[in-house]
Amino acid sequence: MKRFAIVFVMLACVAAGGLFPAGAAADGEIKLVGVISAIDIAGQDAASATVTLKDNKTDAAVTVVVTDDLTLDKFKDHRIVVGDEIRLKYESKDGKNLSRYFRKTAGC
């Protein structure tokens, strides 16, 4: 009986893993770590910025749009500058890569 229960629990875990794959919670969200190669703050009100990063794994250039106020303030204060390594999460929407998480790997 104990073996049956163990096998049942293992099968239930496998079935749950098939229903909810690891990336299901963040559907469409892409993560990367890369170095900033360009920052372009748009307009005088600085409501958004376009940042280009070089992905450390693939060496591909990725351009994202940053709209959160905290990160924009860090661009203005030069706490985040070209050459900093960034941990980024973004999603593609309407042909644009929208930043969801933008932090220096060393903190900040």
Question: Which properties best describe this structure?
Answer:
108 residues; alpha+beta; five-stranded antiparallel sheet; 2 helices; 5 strands; elongated
In short:
This protein is an alpha+beta fold.
Polypeptide structure, described:
With 108 residues, this protein is an alpha+beta fold. Helices cover 24% and strands 43% of the residues. It has 2 helices and 5 strands, in the order αβββαββ. It has helices at residues 2-19, 69-76, and strands at residues 29-42, 48-55, 61-66, 85-93, 96-104. A 5-stranded antiparallel beta sheet has the order 3-2-1-4-5. A hairpin with a 5-residue loop joins strand 2 (48-55) and strand 3 (61-66). The longest helix has 18 residues, at 2-19. The protein is elongated. The chain starts with a helix and ends with a strand. The relative contact order is 0.18. The model has no long low-confidence stretch (mean pLDDT 84).
Structural class, from secondary structure content?
alpha+beta
Please, how many helices? Answer: 2
Supply Rg.
20 Å
| DSSP E strands, number | 5
In the predicted model, the low-confidence regions spanning at least 5 consecutive residues are none
The percent range for strand residues is: 35-45%
SSE order in H/E notation? HEEEHEE
Distance between the termini: 54 Å
Percentage of residues in helical conformation: 10-25%
Q: Please outline the major beta sheet.
A: 5 strands, antiparallel
Quote the average pLDDT: 84
**Strand order across the biggest sheet?**
3-2-1-4-5
Spatial shape: elongated
